[in-house]
Design goal:
By secondary structure, this protein is of the alpha/beta class. The chain has a single domain (4-225), classed as P-loop containing nucleotide triphosphate hydrolases (Rossmann fold, 3-Layer(aba) Sandwich). The protein has helices at 48-55, 78-88, 104-114, 121-131, 147-159, 177-194, 205-208, and strands spanning 4-17, 20-33, 37-41, 63-68, 71-72, 89-93, 165-169, 197-201, 213-218, 221-225. Helix 6 (177-194) links the parallel strand 7 and strand 8. The chain is globular, with a radius of gyration of 17 Å.
Length: 226
């Protein structure tokens, strides 16, 4: 039986907008097995981003329990949550979120800098860039790379701390179809070869069709999982 690396029970997130309470999440239950690739879909306002922020340890739920890799993280203080986030979660964003003045290898080293890793930092960054096929672009800055190459740098950055999960928020949204296919192929290969658990937030049915399971959100609730 597969090990459940994500276990969310009754997650609620309520935002106070003046005198109005907005239920971004209305009681989400979700279990993700270790090594699984899932996609989370839903219309705008369904709660996708809110759920991603909680699963990625960027935010706390108003109610409910969230276990990441066996650790209850939903009630941690902000500084404690930041430590877990840096250690256990890798992020890939639609807009790449690379530092423009830093080289590819310096961008990949960032999570290790935050974690206080010094000795093997350069070697691990080089290995991650080699893994995504960019060993010949390590000293290039983002402006000197194509969109697909920038996203590969972002993937390498997400991997260097060997996270429990990778959260990919519309990872192919700013790419042409060829580059988008290459990025999805790379993510699926990483899952197959390294057993990395991957959660993809997407609007693209072609992307979700390549994942092992689709979780659909509507009005802050899981509408269906298949």
């Amino acid at each position: 039986m597969a090990e459940c690396i994500i276990s969310a029970n009754g997650l609620k997130k309520i935002y106070q907008m003046g005198e109005v309470s907005v239920n971004a999440l209305a009681g989400v239950d979700l279990c993700v097995d270790k090594g699984e690739v899932i996609s989370i879909m839903g219309p705008s306002g369904s709660g996708k981003t809110t759920l991603m922020n909680i699963l990625g340890c960027l935010d706390h739920p108003t109610e409910g329990d969230y276990y990441l890799d066996g650790e209850l993280v939903s009630h941690l203080k902000d500084d404690e949550l930041a430590v877990v986030r840096n250690r256990k979660v890798g992020f890939i964003f639609q807009n790449f979120n690379l530092l423009p003045r830093q080289t590819a290898i310096s961008n990949v080293e960032l999570p290790m800098r935050y974690a206080g890793i010094k000795r093997e930092r350069r070697d691990r960054a080089l290995e991650a860039l080699k893994l995504v096929g960019l060993e010949d672009r390590v000293m290039h800055r983002p402006a000197e790379l194509s969109g697909g190459q920038q996203q590969r740098v972002a993937i390498a950055r997400s991997l260097v701390n060997d996270p429990a999960i990778i959260m990919a928020d519309e990872p192919t949204g700013n790419l042409d179809s060829k580059s988008g296919k290459e990025i999805m192929d790379l993510l699926l290969r990483l899952n197959k070869e390294r057993g990395t658990t991957i959660i993809i937030i997407t609007h693209d049915a072609n992307i979700s069709a390549q994942t092992q399971r689709v979780v659909r959100l509507k009005d802050g609730l899981v509408e269906a999982a298949q």
